[in-house]
Predict the 3D structure of the following.
Amino acid sequence: MKKKSKRQISLMVVVVVAAILLMITAGVAMTRTSLADDSEPASGQIDKEFTIWARQFDFTPAVITVQQGDYVRVNLKTADVAHGFYIDGYDVNVKVTWGETKSVEFVADKAGTFKIRCSVSCGPFHPFMAGKFVVEQSPNIVPWLIIAGVTAASVLSVGIPAFQLWRNRRNKGK
Ligand code: CUA
């Protein structure tokens, strides 16, 4: 009798732990998904903001780094003639003339290193006026959580009936 109740308690513990794990998995997955789906930030939720000075024939800063998923704002200014700010692989292209500040906002949804180019013919070295946009990959834990949740659920759905079967047989055998 004492042995049986011990087993039942351990079975209950396993079920409760599995349920908690699944709830955490679902909760985290939903939170992360809703965050990732935000293509428009709520007011004041810009993750990274840069003011970039364009000048014959470079950008300052020349390299900007963000995390994947960041909502980015770039403010572009020129120190001399008209220049552009174009990011390869992103739908970003702004142009400024002297005295202006042009802003562009976008979500850095693709990880990698992308070339920044000037998109206004600004002089003899215009083709060499370039920079780098670096999007660091954020570790995506959602697929792993889903795999862990599904694995736990399948192991338990086989394990619990098997355990019960084994227990019943053992009791019968006595
Ligand atoms: Cu600056 Cu072309």
Summary: Residues 54, 83, 118, 120-122, 126, 129 surround dinuclear copper ion (CB under 6 Å).
